[in-house]
Design brief:
Elements: H1 2-17, H2 20-55, H3 62-90, H4 105-120, H5 122-139
Length: 142
C-alpha cells in the first residue's frame, strides 16, 4: 500500500509540473481521489449497516444506534465527494484565444514547423514512412 501511495504521489507531482496536459491530469487525479474515498466510505457504511443488523438481535437498542449513526455519517461524506468529482469533471478550462496570423503567413509557418520537426525526428519519420509504404503496398495483396 505504501508503494502505491508513493507512486500516486509521484504521478501527481509529475502532472503538477507538466504544462497544458497537467491541468487535465490534475483534474482527473482529484476526481479519482474523490471517487476512491467515496467508495471506501460507502464500503465502510455498508459494513456498519451489516454490523447494525447483526447487533439488532441484541435486546438493547443502544448498540444498534451507534453503527447506524456511523453509517449515516459516512454516507453523508460520500455525497459531497461525488458532487466535487462531478464538478471537477464537468468544468472546462478556458483556452487562451489563438493569435491572429495573416493568411499568407500560415502556410509558411506550417512548412517551417514541419521542416524543423522533420530535422529533429528524422529516424522516426523515416520509420513511419517505411511502415506506411509497406502497409500501402500490402493493401492490394490478399
Amino acid at each position: 500500500m505504501d508503494a502505491l501511495m508513493r507512486g500516486t504521489a509521484t504521478a501527481f507531482a509529475e502532472t503538477m509540473s507538466a504544462g497544458g496536459i497537467g491541468v487535465a491530469a490534475r483534474r482527473m487525479t482529484v476526481a479519482a481521489w474523490c471517487v476512491a474515498l467515496a467508495t471506501v466510505f460507502g464500503a465502510a457504511s455498508v459494513g456498519c449497516a451489516v454490523t447494525a443488523l447483526w447487533v439488532f438481535v441484541l435486546p438493547e437498542v443502544g448498540p444498534v444506534g451507534a453503527p447506524l449513526i456511523a453509517a449515516a455519517a459516512l454516507l453523508s461524506l460520500c455525497l459531497p465527494l461525488l458532487v466535487i468529482a462531478r464538478i471537477v469533471l464537468r468544468r472546462r478550462p478556458q483556452l487562451p484565444p489563438a493569435p491572429a496570423l495573416p493568411d499568407a503567413a500560415v502556410p509558411a509557418l506550417l512548412i517551417a514547423e514541419a521542416s524543423r520537426l522533420m530535422e529533429e525526428n528524422k529516424g522516426a519519420a523515416l520509420l513511419a514512412a517505411l511502415l506506411a509504404g509497406a502497409t500501402a503496398g500490402n493493401l492490394g495483396r490478399k
